[in-house]
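Supplementary Methods S3. Input chains for the assembly prediction are listed below.
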Amino acid sequence: MNKLTKFRFASVILISDIFVLFCLKGNISAITAGGFLSGILIQAIISVPFALWIKKGKSIENCGNFVKIIFMIYFLLWATAIFSMFWDTSEVIYIPSQNSGIFGKISVLSAIGLVCAYMTSAGMKTLLRSSVIVAGMGAVCILIVMTSALLKSDFENIKIIRSEKFPNEFARGLILSGNLGSFAVLLGNAKGNAVTNSLIYFSAKIIITFIILMTAVLLSGGIMEITDFPVVMSAQLSQPFPSQRIDSLFLMIFSIFGVFSIALQTCLARYLFKSLKRGS
Amino acid sequence: MKKILISFLSLILFTGCDSDGHIQKRNYLRSLSVDGDNITMVFFNDDTLNFNSDISSAKYIAEKLTGNEIFTGHTELIILGDCDKKNILTFMIEKWKVSPDCIIIFGNENILSEKNTDDITGMIKIKEKNHEIPKADIISTLSRILN
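Predicted structure tokens for the full assembly:
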């Protein structure tokens, strides 16, 4: 694998992190944002000794076959988890009627599988090269939804807290941090100072997580009781212009991010498998 | 060349380019009144439909009566009379995907026969701007009911 620039390194992992946030299920509130951000802060602190270890020239690929196999299994399991989130969340994304029913589901499933297989076969280089463009598109979508939230939402929604408790939300944030596996493998392949790269990634993650969660709270906080997927609902409610909703753009970003996230895990598993074969 | 052809075919097959959702084959719902089982629908082409139904079957029955598919995403006004307001508004958001700016007022179907949608929504917006009434969009209204 060629060395990644620091922005490409952060982009490729953040795409997966953002997708996991899109698929967030259940009530969220300002407490959720607090729990998630605290978890990311702890991860950032814990990553420093790991980054210092990487700085000495070590990497996961040099840790022996057993570690590589563990990571391979981890990536495949996390890819399955992401696919499951993708499938659950796609039930509530508005898709025109001709895509519903069993034929629609099979065609969507086949399309996802084909694209993931193609991206995996194209290799890490292709995936990494496209990450900055994909991340840029996502940033535009998030920016539009955030702007709509700031202009139209009810700031009283920040005060609404239902059943969320800080320890539970902290734990939920940690459970959804499965992309740390990708972070661990890719950090060893990023240019520049590993500690700096690590801190850039976690800083960006904190900012984006805060933006996405608070936007969802502002837009759909008042109707959280009837909302299964608050981030998706906030995108569906976003209407930046009087005659235009953002559903179509969000659907595109959701699909691209979903497929990219699954393909990243399978690509990394394939990369480690090749490294395993080379080693033996 | 093969990759370009496959990409192009995928675009046609998977993005709805082959759909028959022509504008003239659809009715676009502008305002809706629900008062018990009495449903009144007013469309953007000024057609009005009155019938009896529960809300979950209303769209299906209206499409049978008009012979056209009904699109609800641009609905501007919903008037709720004697009905379960929380369930109706939840249904509107989840199933009918009405516009988040859709205005909700509580009254009966006579309002739609006495005034047109523009007059009603215009009056509501002026009152909102002058802080005479709280925000009347569907999200704010449902939020007040739920909380």
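Chain B touches chain A through 21 residues (CB under 8 Å). Chain B is about 45% helix and 20% strand.
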